[in-house]
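Researcher: For the record, we're logging two predictions in this thread. I'll number them. Prediction 1 follows.
Model: Prediction 1, sequence and structure:
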Amino acid sequence: MAQMFHREKSIQLKSSASALYNNLSVLRLAPRSLTHFAVVHVNVVNLVSASWDGLNYSHRQLQSKEGSVATNSSLIIQAAWCVLPSRDLLVVTSQKGIQMYESDGSIMVYWHALDIPETSTDKAVFARGIAAVRDKYICVGVYSGAVLVFDVPSKGSNITLSEVLEEHTDSVTDMASECSGSTEYTADLVSADDSGLLCVWKSGGDFQLLNKIPGFDMSCSSVKLWKGTVIAAYGTGQIRLYEGITGILHAEVNAHARWIYSLDIAPFPGLLLSAAEDSFVRVWHLSPALENNTVEIEHLYNECVTDTQICGAKFCDGDGHAFAVTGYDLSEIIRYTQA
């Protein structure tokens, strides 16, 4: 197997990464030659802005908030940038609610409190799973299985909860929108839950459920949508590729020895990144097979991050030239670039 990537100098964090699914988000700002990284540690989000030449870094820490008041007690579950045509927002989910910030984390523009059940249940209260869809929607999953759809204006803070999608009965684990950049695909959102159930949606004024793909009672920890194909990662270490609208299984790969924590896609070359508790990051190539209308997956590259339970992995650009990795209890972001 050809050596494709080499390790770069790591980016230091103010505090270590928590053991959460998809615990890394990356925002590339081409006009300013900057890359933003976000990593959750307990009740803070570590934000690092890095220049492309690797010489300059700036750090910021966001605390969990309830409304505009910082709170030490609320655990943050996820932080992710949502890129819309008119603006980029940083969305932070916690046990208390959903916070939306300007992309650098400087100003909170919206706060949505989670409904706390009146009768105590054994379910923890949290929001998890974040995706920007089409021109103006940000979707966030919650513990009850509901998907909250927020309508986001091109500027300002007049964000509204426009719809609640209630098809999951287990806690939402992850969500993804169509990442190929093409608008030809009817399915443009997929949501996953703790039972492994996948719901495939068409966004719009009213979101339509297109398909439900059963989950076999194994949690789906991370999900992606590329050219109409759903790519789902499971606690078994398996990756499955489904045709979104029909639910036909294109491929099933025993990708990792332990629980997969993160998937990402570089949409232009069709590269897939997977990372797991087994300390391995793997790069795969996805290619549409035109003769039978399926998608094929080919293994390209392995990297072992020794003695590290990997919890986040993201490509740093749409071409897959570089990727970054976080690990539980690790106070650094490890970067790899193509050799």
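Researcher: Logged. Prediction 2.
Model: Prediction 2, sequence and structure:
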Amino acid sequence: MNNSDFSAALKELGIDPLKAAAASVSELYRLPQARLDEIKTSLIVEAFRFHYRNNAYYRQACESKGIDEHSIATYEDLIRIPLVPIAKFKSASSHELLSKPLARIEHEMRSTGTSGIPSISRRCHETVDVAVVAIYAMYREFLGISKGAGLYICPSTEEIPEMGMIKALNMLAGLLDTHEFMVKEERFVPEQAIARLKGWENQFTRHIIGPPFLIHRLLQFLKQTGQRLQLDRGSRVITLGGWKRFTGQMISRREFNLMCQEYLGIDPGSVRDIYALVESNVMAIDDEHQVKHVSPYVHFTVRDMNDLSREVAPGEKGVLGILDPLALATPGMILTEDIVILLPGESPSGRSGQRMEYVMRAPSSLEFGCCAVNLEKTMDGQTSDATPVCPIAS
């Protein structure tokens, strides 16, 4: 079965190929690499042609590079797909990115990074449908959560409804028996968090969820007060939001893992970090070996920092480009400002697909951090903005 046959066969059965792929994360990761590449190429080619036909801005960008809707057909052609600079989502002309009428937009998320320039991410009904399925499938594959109590060391979506990081983490609550948000009115009191964890002891498997800097504050408090907790078999520490503080200082992942082991009683394999972007539907989540797996239907293209038309070899650092077929309201073909590495070789977990390591923001980026950075600035009184919002990129 070739690329086009995959989508055509499903459509003939009345099945949406995107929804089928999003709901089949586990099965896709267990396909031979060549077969997985065929399937995601089929989805990406179809998405590319949709945006080419329905988006004047994107079509012009393609034509300026000598690309038409028939130029992209195979896996080898994917590198030729024009990428939209992520800064376009922050521009006054971001409405040009719409491939569907504004009246068809169901969800609009405004986000502000450290530059203070808002980014607008829009999703139509169809994109929201498939993205919800995709997020839960990735959570189930890599977190394995279906019960327990979630200690959210972050504000609730009620306090910050536009922050993508909180929105994504809040979806985990639907898999839990109970949960509580511990940051209220921009204040986090570690004693209250510890009391809540102790109150759930022997009742629920306890999970801790939030951006690294806030969970690190809890760990530092336990260390400074000489307290140690013993979480449960199956407990997870789940982080999203980046490891750089607003001061520019990096939180050491190795130190973080060791502190989780010493003060929470869980092994490093139970600490799972998530990479995501509000402008895309991609997620890359740590497996049991703390290796991030890219959503199997999404393709990462890592470009030479000095020549963006050229891909670097696996294992080399480069600028991340994302080909996301799930995005229908706006093109999911995005050139980010993140420096990453695609890991070579086979996964120790046995999964196929791409695996990545986040390195840093590109030096040319106007942003030096993400929503976690702005949240920390606000909580520490570094900004007067009471509702910090920004992308959910790590």
